[in-house]
Amino acid sequence: FLDLKTMFRPNEMGYATVIDSYSRNGDGTNAERILQLMKGQYGVGSNNNGANVVAYNAAITAWARSTSRASSNPKDFPTSPASM
Fold first, then answer.
1. 39 and 45 Cβ atoms separated by less than 8 Å
2. 18 or 49: which carries more pLDDT confidence?
3. φ, ψ (nearest 5 deg) of residue 47
4. C-beta of residue 20 within 8 angstroms of C-beta of residue 56
């Protein structure tokens, strides 16, 4: 049986395409999850798939379009730099 994970490795374009797809659907959680996977793949094997500006922009757009925010309660946000 062939192991597809070892046969096919995603590249920067593949990761960015998936992040963009989540972005178009307003899914910030999964867009960020794929971005983190992309960052974790940097320097692994022959494909240096570090996160690039396209991937970051798509992830930011996904959160901007997201209908479920990590926190929508203003009390959860820091009020001063010292509390960050």
1. no
2. 18
3. -95, 110
4. no
A 10 A CB-CB count for 78 gives 8
Measured N-to-C along each axis, helices 53-65 and 28-40 cross at an angle, to the nearest 10 degrees, of 160
Contact 49, 40 (CB under 8 A): no
Q: Is the distance from CB of 41 to CB of 49 less than 8 angstroms?
A: yes
Query: pLDDT tens digit string along 16-36?
Result: 999 999 999 999 999 999 999
pTM given for the model? 0.66
68 or 62: whose pLDDT is higher?
A: 62
